[in-house]
Write a structure and sequence with these properties.
Layout: E1 4-5, E2 9-12, H1 18-23, E3 28-31, E4 34-37, E5 40-41, E6 47-49, E7 56-59, E8 82-85, E9 91-98, E10 103-108, E11 111-121, E12 126-131, E13 134-139, E14 142-144, E15 149-154, E16 161-164, E17 167-169, E18 173-178, E19 183-186, E20 189-191, E21 195-200, E22 212-218, E23 221-223, E24 228-229, E25 244-245, E26 247-252, E27 254-260, E28 263-265, E29 279-282, E30 295-298, E31 301-303, E32 310-312, E33 317-320, E34 323-324
Parallel strand pairs: 2-3, 3-6, 4-7, 5-8, 6-9, 7-9, 8-10, 9-11, 10-12, 11-13, 11-14, 12-15, 13-16, 14-17, 15-18, 16-19, 17-20, 18-21, 19-22, 20-23, 21-26, 22-27, 23-28, 26-29, 27-30, 28-31, 29-32, 30-33, 31-34
Antiparallel strand pairs: 1-2, 24-25
C-alpha cells in the first residue's frame, strides 16, 4: 500500500518515511497497520494517528536529526521513537514504540502535547519521558521494560499533566514524578516494577530547581511491585539511584499532594530497598530536597505488603479513613 496524500491528511504505508509525511505540513499523518522503521520528530499542531497500539508498530531505523538536549541518564547518541522538542499542540494516538535505545517518547519544552493509546515497549532507558513541559495528557497508554521510568514527568514546574487509565510494568518506576508539580495521576495500574509510583523532590547538579507540589494520585492499583532496582551495575534497572524494591507509592519531599482511593497491595521486595514499606511518605532534605508536608491520604487500602504496609512521617500529613494493615 503506497503513501497517499490529500489536502488534510497523509497516509503512510510501512516502509515509507514517516518524517517526510510530517514535513509535508499536512495537519494529520495517518500510519497504516504494520511495522514502520525509524522514529520521527513532531511539529506544531500535527496529529499522528496509528491503527492502534500493537497494530501500528515503530521500530528503530534511520536516526532523525533533532536539536533536542541529551536524554537524562542515557548514553550519548541514543535514538528515540518520537521526539517533541519546543512543539505546541501536537498529538499522537494508536501506536507502539518498540526497542529504541533512548526513549519511546522524548518530549522537551513541549506545550499541549497529547498521547492516547500509545505503547512504549522495551525502550532501553525511558518509556515516555516528558521534561520541562506543560499542558500534558497521557491517556490509555502503556509503558513496559525500561531501565528507569515507564511514564515520567521531569522538571515540569507547572505540568498541568493528566496521566489517566494507563498501565506500567517491568520498569524501575512505573510512574515517576520527578521535580514536577500540578500532575494528576488517576486510574493507573502499576504492577511488576520496583516502585509503582515514585514522587521525588531532589537536587541534581546542573539541573533546574524543582519540587513536587499540588498533585493528585487517585483510584490507582499499585500491586505486585517486586523488581529490584538500583546498585552499582550501570546496566541494572534504576542504576542511577539507591536500592529500591517492593514499593507501591513513595512520596519523598512533596507538598500538598492528595492521595485518594488507591489500592496498594501485594508489594514485596525482590532485593534490597531503602524504603522498607509499600507506602512511604518522607523527607528528601538530606539530598537537597525538602520535608513532606501538608499532604492528605484518604480512603486508601494498604494491605498485604511486606516487610511493612506503610511508613508515613507523622508531621504534616493528614490521614483519614484509610485501611492500613498491621505490621508484619
Amino acid at each position: 500500500m503506497p503513501t497517499t496524500e490529500t489536502a488534510t491528511e497523509v497516509l503512510v504505508a510501512p516502509g515509507d518515511p514517516i518524517q517526510s509525511a510530517l514535513d509535508s505540513g499536512a495537519p494529520t499523518v495517518r500510519l497504516a497497520e504494520g511495522v514502520h522503521t525509524g522514529g520521527f520528530v513532531l511539529r506544531d499542531g500535527v496529529r499522528v494517528v496509528g491503527a492502534g497500539a500493537g497494530k501500528t508498530v515503530i521500530v528503530p531505523g534511520e536516526v532523525q536529526t533533532s536539536d533536542v538536549p541529551p536524554l537524562h541518564d542515557a548514553p550519548e547518541k541514543v535514538d528515540h521513537g518520537i521526539v517533541a522538542h519546543r512543539v505546541t499542540g501536537a498529538s499522537v494516538e494508536g501506536l507502539t514504540l518498540r526497542g529504541f535505545s533512548g526513549a519511546g517518547v522524548y518530549a522537551h519544552t513541549a506545550t499541549d502535547l497529547r498521547l492516547t493509546d500509545v505503547e512504549a515497549d522495551g525502550n532501553r532507558v525511558w518509556g515516555i519521558y516528558l521534561r520541562e513541559s506543560s499542558g500534558l495528557a497521557v491517556h490509555r497508554c502503556r509503558a513496559a521494560g525500561s531501565q528507569y521510568g515507564g511514564i515520567a514527568l521531569a522538571f515540569c514546574r507547572a505540568a498541568e499533566a493528566d496521566i489517566d487509565d494507563c498501565e506500567t510494568t517491568a520498569n524501575a518506576f512505573g510512574v515517576f514524578v520527578d521535580n514536577s508539580s500540578r500532575a494528576r495521576v488517576r486510574r493507573v495500574r502499576s504492577h511488576g516494577n520496583a516502585a509503582g509510583i515514585l514522587m521525588l523532590h531532589q537536587t541534581y547538579p546542573g539541573e533546574p530547581e524543582g519540587g513536587v507540589t499540588d498533585c493528585l494520585v487517585a483510584d490507582c492499583d499499585l500491586t505486585g511491585n517486586s523488581l529490584a532496582a538500583g546498585g552499582e551495575d550501570p546496566e541494572a534497572l534504576g542504576a542511577a539511584g539507591p536500592p529500591m524494591s517492593g514499593v507501591g507509592l513513595a512520596m519523598i519531599g512533596v507538598q500538598r499532594v492528595a492521595v485518594v482511593g488507591n489500592r496498594i497491595t501485594g508489594n514485596h521486595p525482590g532485593g534490597p530497598s531503602v524504603m522498607g514499606a509499600a507506602l512511604v511518605v518522607g523527607s528528601s532534605a538530606d539530598w537537597g530536597g525538602s520535608a513532606s508536608t501538608d499532604n492528605t491520604l484518604e480512603w486508601n487500602t494498604v494491605t498485604g505488603n511486606s516487610p511493612a504496609n506503610a511508613w508515613v512521617d507523622p508531621d504534616g500529613q493528614r490521614l483519614v479513613n484509610n485501611e492500613i494493615g498491621e505490621a508484619t
